Amino acid sequence: MVTTSPEFATVSASFRSQVRSTGSADIHCSVNSKMKRCVDILGAMVGLLLTALVVVPVAIAIQLDSPGPIFYSQTRCGHRGRQFKIWKFRSMVTDAEALKSQVVNQASGHVFKNDNDPRITRVGRFLRRTSLDELPQFWNVLQGDMSLVGTRPPTVDEVKQYSHHHWKRLEVKPGITGEWQVNGRSQVIDFEAIVQLDLRYLRRWSVRYDLHLIGKTIWVVLSKQGAC
Prior knowledge:
Blueprint lengths: L5 H17 L11 H32 L5 E7 L5 E7 L6 H4 L22 H8 L7 H7 L3 E3 L6 H5 L14 E3 L1 H4 L8 H14 L2 H16 L6
Parallel strand pairs: 3-4
Antiparallel strand pairs: 1-2
């Protein structure tokens, strides 16, 4: 679901300004790739089928552990700063945002991370460890806001703090998985390192490379490596 807000206008204007300053308005070849979109649609349909199979037990577990919404949504920035609502199974307490200021950020730069975040529920830790919390994002892929493979989807506040070279991350759709996710996301906590992984994806992109990263993601999930 695409959202329109004053923040969207600000981010979009900033992206256009960066395009003008670099003198390049080229669209990354992955954005208009029909083959990539076909892979996304097929993968999203399979992913949503898997989601349907686990949604009832996951919903019950979330409710028993921490009564409240089953799903969690947050505004993220996609291709060229276009905002959308990203969906996940809720893995934190319902007042997580209000408690954020009390949690120490172990990452550097414009990304927030704490391996022992007290806001994460017991069920939430299991969902994150198994990556089950990400399953609802297949809906984002089917809608076209995300891709199966892409860059890490940034928050609006994160994008507002971007430096010049960070804006290239918005030249492609964000993905459920990507370089950061398959290269030990629990160990990569430096924002600039994450950016470099995303930019590497832009340089290396091909449908074949996407399939390679999807296969690597499956291995990472099954071996429980790289989980948050």
